[in-house]
Amino acid sequence: MQRRILVPSAVAASLLLAIPASAAAGGPGKSPGGQGAPGAPGIGDPYYPSSGNGGYDVAHYDLRLRYQPATDLLEGTATILATTRQDLSRFNLDFGLTVSEVRVNGRTAGFTRSGGQELEITPAAPLEENRPVTVVVRYSGKPSELKIDGWTAWHRTPDGGVAAQEPASAVWWFPSNDHPLDKATFDISVAVPDGTQAISNGVLRSRSSRLGWTRYNWRSDKPQATYLATLAVGKFDITTDTTANGLPVLNAYSKDLGGNAGAARASVERTAEVAEWLEGVFGPYPFNALGGYVPNVPSGYALETQTRPFYSPRQFANGANVSVVVHELAHQWYGDSVSVKGWKDIWVNEGFARYSQWLWSEKEGEGTAQELADYIYALHPADDPFWTVKPGDPGPDRQFDIAVYDRGALALQALRNAIGDEDFFAVLKGWPAAHADGNASVGDFVQYAEEVSGTPLADLFRTWLYEPSRPAAPAAAAPPSGVSKAPGVTRSDARPAEPRSYRRIAATDTVHDHDRGHGRDQRD
């Protein structure tokens, strides 16, 4: 459809400037003497100042690993292909395991530690701006014993280990520029004892066995944020298939899931069906592989690890729940293909993944998105702290608060009612295509929705994403013609009937509990 162009509203324009220039520039620039300057130890994200680094952009990670489940010993060689963005005398990687050697462009480099996760590397000679650079890091360690700020992102399982966490997990198993602003392609090769499998992102390119070890070679050929890289080692039942369009589908289930095994399979085996439906909502699936995995971990959350979401068994403790699969697969478009510019932009991930669950409910005839919006609005009176969370900038301590999900979805229902279904679904489908394989902010989305709809939307988004109070009216559409309302009375002053899908959707609320609190759960 033709887009009607608007000058961005004040809200959109201001939000477009939200990421510091240093994040885009990648560091402090050249030193006066021309010998380079140290790259910044952070990428410029105020939520997580130590995340990411400045001075370079990574294009590709090649990880060659060996993991022993019995001891949790991980040995690795990471080869990182990058381009310098300034003259560099020194640069950082984010990493926590023990490093034995670093080489830059084939030459031995110096290295030291600082802070909780900074690996400071000094090349043999300064690096010139806009030149390709190859960094090789040899390392080893036990990820489950690595604690940063008192927590770990590594799950130890009865038969192996799992890396799946947000906003950070790479630090525990490979060196990286650990922020979504620096996405890269991946080759992940993992050797494990025979009888054990290694699951990762993308397509399994090959598998071979030698001297009691089996090596699995995985490839992700589209840009991927480092926190979306995953590794699961253990004993799995694996199912494979292809979609009607020829996409390879691989799902994996720990052999010891107990009573949750059937419900997990009944949910995750519908991955291809859900992805096909989501293509009708969000456009073509953005990657070349599909699937999911359920390891035997005690956590309760799920995570949108690219092409192969992670699901905790507890997501299926009350039976099959396809809604969580809908949520994580929606992230393949909203969060994975289009990633945040900064972690404060989390709404452009989570609000849309939650709203996709509402649309699935609508499609299944178990409650429309409007009915869910009315019900959730009514659940939270004006004095509920729910309304003090600002989904457009919740703060690092509230980044995964339920309000980011539910109030975030209410904002989308308000948008739908304001611009109508034709423009609304054009926005949902056009946005992932407009920003494919890149990064975007809340302000970018506001601007895009205004361009497509030809409607000023600053007040709507300010009300639903930024005001720390309950809006004066719910996201509900106007009442039918001829039906009047008393002054100050909304549709939700009386509690609406509970939609049939509500409890299944609410059962996935722990999907958002993958912040640093999970690490605290794993201290023992």
UniProtKB/TrEMBL annotation:
Tell me which domain of life the UniProt entry assigns to the organism this sequence originates from: Bacteria
| Record-annotated Aminopeptidase N-like N-terminal domain positions | 60-228
A Pfam family? Peptidase_M1_N
Annotated signal peptide: 1-23
Q: Which UniProt keywords apply?
A: Hydrolase, Metal-binding, Metalloprotease, Protease, Signal, Zinc
Q: Which residues form a coiled coil?
A: none
Name the coenzymes or cofactors required: Zn(2+)
Annotated region Disordered: where? 26-48, 471-524
Q: Record's CDD domains?
A: M1_APN_like
Q: Where is the composition biased (Basic and acidic residues)?
A: 492-501, 510-524
| This protein's name | Aminopeptidase N
Q: Which organism is it from?
A: Streptomyces marianii
